[in-house]
Design brief:
single chain, 6-stranded mixed beta sheet, 4 helices, 26% helix
């Protein structure tokens, strides 16, 4: 059996990997981070997104972090509690920034993630991820910023016209 500090570090790496995979549209690796029966609930000031099951979650995230978006997700200040050898909870402070070039809006905000994790086959997975916004600022723009590097443009899903 691993020690709680080892589990805490593995959960930290799991959450950091989640943010990296979202911002880089690494959908295959992102899929491996969720339990098959996972669920999410993300509540912003202008939206509520809920999904049940890994396939539904991954499909929605792939569509949200598309080739016409720029994303930054930074989590810190983890408060991780290992509640059993196979279960844990975590609270994370999120700072994020999202530019949707298609809809011509920038969303800047922060939130508190409240997650649950399960250990299956020796690996920690996200069982439930939720957040509620601390603040959210949505700013429309008319002219796109001068983008000199754009990872999602190369690696993100191409949305159909009019979507």
């Amino acid at each position: 059996m691993s020690l709680p500090l080892e589990d805490i570090e593995l959960i930290r790496q799991l959450k950091y990997r989640y943010c990296r995979c979202i911002d880089t549209a690494n959908i295959q690796e992102l899929r491996e981070l969720f339990a098959e029966d996972a669920s999410v609930r993300y509540q912003g000031g202008s939206y509520l997104f809920e999904a049940q099951g890994r396939d539904e979650i991954i499909g929605a995230l792939e569509y949200a972090f598309h080739a016409e978006a720029i994303a930054l997700h930074h989590v810190n200040h983890p408060e991780i509690t290992v509640t059993s050898p196979t279960e844990a909870t975590g609270i994370w402070y999120l700072k994020d920034w999202f530019c949707d070039l298609r809809r011509k809006i920038v969303t800047d905000g922060s939130a508190l993630y409240r997650d649950t994790y399960v250990k299956r086959d020796g690996r920690w997975l996200i069982q439930r991820a939720t957040y509620e916004r601390i603040f959210e600022i949505v700013t429309p723009f008319e002219q796109a910023p001068n983008i000199t590097a754009h990872w999602l443009a190369k690696h993100g899903k191409r949305l159909p016209e009019g979507a």
